[in-house]
Automatic annotation (TrEMBL):
This is MFS transporter. It is a multi-pass membrane protein. CDD domains: MFS_MefA_like. Residues 1-403 form the Major facilitator superfamily (MFS) profile domain. It holds the Pfam family MFS_1. It comes from the Bacteria. Keywords: Cell membrane, Membrane, Transmembrane, Transmembrane helix, Transport.
Length: 419
């Protein structure tokens, strides 16, 4: 199983890409705690300013991602990723010196814009450098790196706060982006056979091609709808986790522990799925994981209502299982996205998908907070869990007919890859 999981790392371009991703993803998350510390404790910002900061933090992925993804299909993905890393070095150095709230927001927005352009190029690079039969393992490794960065990055940022000023995180982050660019510099240049044709097309025509491809591929469209609904339901309760621990009578440190447990479960889940040689169809895995995720969310809601024992170890296990199961959904959708999308459309389709998913992520917590005020925190967990189960079961009834009616994307000619 281990040999199967890590087989993509034998492909030298993918190995270099993962090395770059490690430092790039760490850089994306290292400064989150530092920025919060600066705004809250040094600049004494209130809830309104913090809310605007969070909106600006996520907005580039929705507004700019689909448009910038057109360029990731038109030009060298290697050049785009290196350029984004270098630009982020300059931006985080700007964050080190900035002393104005609105200028800080501008730098955060521009840094997010670079990330929104980097990610479609990375997705396309995976698609163009990894053989089709290794895409599941490659996506599992990539997801494990991303999840680990989301745990280690903020933790490292918090650790730096205990020994130095928050601004030090920006210097460490700049070094990370430099190292990422150094690894990516050794990637081969990938050129699409349709490059010249695409450069003669109108920008908006190319943009519509990405959206049109999603609409034409029923399995991909169904996967996007499923993942977006699931993200809506999940992030409906994401901002209520700390409040839920208080309702459960847990100590103040419990939420941080539970978040770390979810991250660990997600990393392990990604590794297990990557090593699963004969996994079911990705869309089936997505729906199955959402049913289980909904059941576990229901248990959290019932616990908050006092209908289940309030044993901390029991809920640690539940949160770990949530992370483990969620990996099956995210890795499966990444695999579905790449197997259902030709290489020359990978950036545009990935950009549209990311924008749709992040729109759900951005809006859902506000709706969740409103529902919590109306019906209570625990009932929001119950509504979210029941909604996940209901939609996943409805979609499951359509799954066999959907798979039978779907044509396979024509296999592209596989070129020999440097090992």
């Amino acid at each position: 199983m281990k040999a199967s999981l890590f087989l993509p790392l034998k492909v030298r371009p993918f190995r270099l890409l993962m090395s770059g991703q490690i430092f790039s993803d760490l850089g994306n998350w290292l400064d989150f705690i530092a920025l919060n510390a600066i705004l809250v404790f040094q600049w004494k910002m209130g809830p309104g300013e913090m809310g605007l900061f969070l909106v600006v933090f996520g907005l580039p992925w929705i507004m700019c991602g689909p448009l910038l993804a057109v360029w990731s299909d038109r030009y060298s993905r290697k050049t785009i990723m290196i350029g984004c890393d270098i630009a982020r070095v300059l931006l985080v150095l700007g964050l080190y010196w900035v002393d104005n709230y609105y200028l800080l927001l501008l730098l955060v927005f521009l840094k997010g814009t670079c990330g929104a352009m980097f990610d479609p190029a990375r997705q396309g690079m995976i698609r163009s450098t990894v053989p089709a039969d290794l895409l599941k393992q490659a996506n599992a490794l990539s997801q494990a790196v991303l999840t680990a960065a989301k745990i280690i990055g903020p933790s490292l940022g918090a650790a730096l706060l205990t020994v130095t000023s928050p601004h030090t995180a920006f210097l460490v982050e700049a070094v990370g982006f430099v190292l990422s660019a150094c690894f990516l510099m050794f990637l081969p240049k990938t050129r699409s056979a349709l490059k010249e044709e695409r450069q003669t097309q109108h920008f908006w025509l190319e943009f519509r091609e990405g959206i049109g491809h999603i609409g034409a591929r029923s399995v991909l469209l169904s996967g996007l709808i499923c993942s977006s609904i699931a993200m809506w339901m999940i992030f409906l309760i994401e901002g209520l986790g700390s409040v839920w621990t208080r309702v459960m009578g847990m100590p103040s440190t419990a939420y941080g522990t539970l978040v770390a447990v979810v991250g660990c479960g997600n990393v392990i889940g990604s590794i297990v799925l990557g090593a699963w040689r004969k996994a079911p169809h990705p869309l089936g895995l997505i729906l199955g994981s959402h049913v289980l995720f909904g059941l576990l969310t229901l248990l959290k809601g019932l616990g908050g209502m006092g209908w289940l024992p309030r044993d901390f170890v029991f809920y640690v296990c539940i949160w770990w299982m949530i992370g483990f199961i969620n990996a099956f959904s995210t890795v499966s959708f990444s695999t579905l996205l790449q197997t259902e999308t030709p290489e020359h459309l990978m950036g545009r389709v990935s950009g549209v998908v990311t924008a749709v998913q992040n729109a759900a992520i951005l809006i859902a917590p506000m709706v969740g907070a409103w529902l919590a005020e109306w019906i209570g925190v625990s009932r929001v967990f119950i509504v979210s869990g029941a909604g996940l189960i209901l939609y996943a079961m409805i979609m499951s009834f359509r799954l066999p007919r959907l798979l039978r009616s779907t044509e396979t994307v024509p296999a592209e000619r596989q070129q020999s890859l440097p090992m």
